[in-house]
Amino acid sequence: MNRDDVDWQGYYPAFVTPFTEAGDLDLDTLRALVDHYVAEGMHGIVVNGTCGEWFSQTPEERRAVAETAVERAAGRLRVLVGSTAYTARETAQYARHALAAGADGVLASPPPYAKLFPDEVIAFYRDLDAAVDGPIAVYNWPHGSGVDIGTELADELADIDQIVAIKDSTPDADQFFATSRRVRDRVRVFGPYMSVRGLEVLRTEGGDGTVGGGSLFGRPDPAFWESYWRGEYEGPREHAVASDRLFPKLWLPGGWAGKYGAYQSQLKALMTMLGQPAGHVRRPRLPITDAGSLRTMRAVLVEEGLLAEAAEQ
C-alpha cells in the first residue's frame, strides 16, 4: 500500500469534539459541524485528534464520535479518525473500530508521555501495521508525544506497508519541507503548505494537503487547493498572505497553543464567534472567560475581515 491507494488531498479541518457546558458529549452539535464542513466544501475531516480532545474521552465516547462522524459524513467528505493511545495494541483497537465503522483511514502519533526512541517509533508503527487492515497516517505531533519525527525517521516509516500519509506538525519548517521532499514519492504529506513559503514549495515540488485547526476562513481554505490544482496561483497567494498575517495574531509559534488559552479552548471560542458549531471544551481544558481576551480575539477576526463588526462578547 502507498500514496496511490488513497485519494486524500486538500484541506481537512482538525475536527473539534463538541461538549455541553456540563461536560457531556454533544453529538447533535457534532453532526451540525459535519454538515457545516460539507457545506463549506471541505475535502475531509480529522476527528479525535488533538483538536478533538481525545485525551478526555472514554473509550466508548471515542467510538461514538468516530461512528457519528462517519455516519453523518455519508461519503460527502473523507473521514480520518485519530487513534492515538499509549500502546500499539490499544491504538489498533481504536483503528480497527474506526475502519469497521467506515472511516477512510486512521492516524496516530507515537504514544504520548513515553518519549520513544527512534527504533521504538519504528517498532510501534510496525506493530500497528501488523494489527490493522487499512490505510494509516503517521501523526508527527512533537508537543504531545515528546517525539519529533525527523526526515530520516519519516523516510523509514514511509516504507511500512500500510502507512500512506503523514500529518507533520513539527514546528521546524525547514525539517517539514525536507521531509516532504524525501517521502512524497511514497506517502501523502499534509502540513503547512498554505503559507507564502509553502505555496512556493507547492509550485516547485508539490504537496498533498493541510490539516488545520478547524477552519476559521471557511470556504477559502478548500478553495486554495482547488485553485492550485487548476494551476491558478493568485488566489492561493492572497490566501497564504492572509493566513501568514492572521495566525501569529492568535497562536503561539509552532501552533501548539493559543495566545489567550489552550488550543482547543481558543479554537472553540473563535468558532463560536464565527457562528460555527463548536460546543464547549471539557476538563482538564478550561474555557476562555476573560472578557478582555475575548474582545481582543473578536477584534482580530474583525480586523482580518472574518467578522463584520466587533460585537460585545
UniProtKB/TrEMBL annotation:
Cross-referenced CDD domains: DHDPS-like
Protein family according to the UniProt entry: Belongs to the DapA family.
Top-rank taxon, per record: Bacteria
Catalytic site: 139 (proton donor/acceptor), 167 (schiff-base intermediate with substrate)
An example Gene Ontology molecular-function term: 4-hydroxy-tetrahydrodipicolinate synthase activity
Transmembrane segments: none
InterPro entries xrefs: Aldolase_TIM, DapA-like
Pfam families, alphabetized: DHDPS
Natural source organism: Actinoallomurus iriomotensis
Keywords: Lyase
Binding site for pyruvate: 211
Protein name: 4-hydroxy-tetrahydrodipicolinate synthase
